[in-house]
Amino acid sequence: MARTVLVTGGNRGIGLAIAQAFAKQGDRVAVTYRSGGVPGAGAAEPGFGAGGADRQNGLFGVRCDVTDAESVDAAFTAIEAELGPVEVLVANAGITDDTLIMRMSEEQFARVLDTNLTGSFRVAKRASTKMLRGRWGRMIFISSVVGLAGGAGQVNYAASKAGLVGVARSITRELGTRNITANVVAPGFIDTDMTAGLSEERKAEIRKSIPAGRMATPDEVAGVVTWLASDAAGYVTGAVIPVDGGLGMGH
């Protein structure tokens, strides 16, 4: 059965791989982005009346700033008009602003939490109304191994990603009887454009720290996310699933 899926920050990297995996299995897929648009996709800009869908890969792009509740509401309204109520939410949008705690400003800490953690709250809150009405829903929060194990120079990022566990588990207790699940996926090092910029020496160091001996592909993360959104995972909720090759050992 085809579902309406929203992947925030779905225009590149892991988010795009997740969106494409859902589209490949026949779902109606929307992605949000702050800038740059969606590769090959038309873009709806809430508040401007523009809209479009990429008929080649099935992605409907919507400009959205997850730090702004009005922008989130406008994005959902555009998606609902084009594809129907969001049944599967993948809260993936996030940023980093790394530096050691002694140098980290209040603004740096607050900005990362507002995007990664509070932004996820905003989209989950907006999605929950229609999920409750339909008595079915899947919420999947993209965290990180850093949120479980910590990371030097990443107090803000680690805090934001760890907070998603509390969000998902609280939603599980609130909405679990309505056939709505909420889970967390915690990727480790993934082979993306970001890691591609690392030196070969640094990549070798990273691989040595991973029991599996390699980085994951974005598609390996996407496979876990699409499974969590399926009927087969209907009794899995409040879980944290690492996709890290054993790096975090579950923490």
Description:
There is one protein chain. By secondary structure, the chain is an alpha/beta fold. The chain has a single domain, classed as Rossmann fold, CATH 3.40.50.720. Helices cover 43% and strands 16% of the residues. The chain is built from eight helices and eight strands. The protein has helices at residues 13-24, 69-83, 106-134, 145-149, 155-175, 193-196, 200-209, 218-228, and strands at residues 4-7, 28-33, 43-44, 59-63, 88-91, 137-142, 180-187, 240-243. It has an eight-stranded parallel sheet, sandwiched between helices. Residues 3-193 form the Ketoreductase domain. Belongs to the short-chain dehydrogenases/reductases (SDR) family. It comes from Micromonospora marina.
Helix content: 40-55%
In this structure, how is the largest beta sheet organized?
8 strands, parallel
Strand coverage percent? 15-25%
| Overall geometric form | globular
Calculate the mean pLDDT score and round it.
91
Please outline the helices and strands.
Elements: E1 4-7, H1 13-24, E2 28-33, E3 43-44, E4 59-63, H2 69-83, E5 88-91, H3 106-134, E6 137-142, H4 145-149, H5 155-175, E7 180-187, H6 193-196, H7 200-209, H8 218-228, E8 240-243
Parallel strand pairs: 1-2, 1-5, 2-4, 3-4, 5-6, 6-7, 7-8
Helix pairs in contact: 1-8, 2-3, 3-5
Domain Ketoreductase: 3-193
GO molecular function, one term: oxidoreductase activity
Protein name: 3-oxoacyl-[acyl-carrier-protein] reductase
Produce a short descriptive summary.
This protein is an alpha/beta fold and 251 residues long.
